[in-house]
Amino acid sequence: MTDFEQWRAISASTGPGDRAAAEAGVRLAYASAGLPAPDRIVWARSPLEAVRLLHPEQLARAGRSVREQVRTAPWAAARDRSHAELGAREFARHWQVTGAPLWESTEPIVDRIRAGVVAAAAPVPEPTDSGSDAQKEALRAARSAELRVRMLLLDAVTGQHDAAWLSAFDTSAGSPLAGLAAVARETGWWWPYENLAVLSERPTALHRDEAGRLDCGDGPAVGYSDGFGLYAWRGMPVPGEFLDELVSLTPERIRAEENAELRRVMLEYYGYDRYLAESGAQPLQRDETGILWRIALPDDEDVVMVEVVNSTPEPDGTYRTYWLRVPPATRTAREGVAWTFGLTAPEYQPVAQT
Prior knowledge:
Elements: H1 3-11, H2 19-32, E1 40-44, H3 47-53, H4 56-62, H5 67-97, H6 99-121, H7 133-154, H8 163-166, H9 178-186, E2 190-192, E3 196-200, E4 205-206, E5 222-223, E6 229-230, E7 232-233, E8 236-237, H10 240-246, H11 251-256, H12 260-270, H13 272-278, E9 285-287, E10 290-295, E11 303-309, E12 321-326, H14 333-340
Parallel strand pairs: 1-3
Antiparallel strand pairs: 2-3, 4-5, 5-6, 7-8, 9-10, 10-11, 11-12
Helix pairs in contact: 2-9, 3-6, 6-7
């Protein structure tokens, strides 16, 4: 297994790591930065639990953040060395075959975890029309708590999700990045302070679709052992209770959903063909290529589909039906089918359909 493959596996690892190895990595990372080891190393089951552990009294004892010395400065020095050794053009090529692919897969997870922690640790109430003094004060307090959580997240080192840049540089024993790499191999996000390091465990669950997007229809796409979970459907964040509702969907419930993005998720889960059949929709147009259908949705663009039948029979003699989603402005089935081939309707003249 190459270094890149190893780091790709690390970035997607779930379940407990080796705590002793991670703690040794913390001490090595501090030593490499010229710092004494922290007095205490504390474990949390998730980044959310870590943020909650770092309350003001705990931070007062922890001392200042040393993220700059432990993570930022060594990374910048490694990048500068690599850039000087390879030159600008070769360095860019090196990044494209090492860090770049991992960055594309890990950064959406980092962003989702960060947003999920903020929402769970410091929920901000919706403003009301009354705007009483008590409500205004509650809103100010909530926004102050939100700012504190966001600032704490700036102190975090993202552990296994730093795999992108760790894969691009030397992390072997004796290198300035060896300690950071040792922590990343065994744990998730962590917080380095002068007197305290807080390490959070890796997720217990990670689910992605074939395109690499966070995706799970029956539970959290990213889940932790303390119950903190992040829900997503094909990359789109959704509330956890929303997924529970999908199994009992009806066309009426789909039409009643006011959030256009959640309505699209409902349609994908329910199936466009099933929705058309059960909502009493009527075809707009038909020709030799197929049948054009349109689903009008409130406060959203219409969903336009072409129903086509495969001209090649299945082994049992039946003919399989396909549904092609096409642009809302499509006016004929031929135009829609042609669009899927990158052609205009007049240009679409198949010799034989398969």
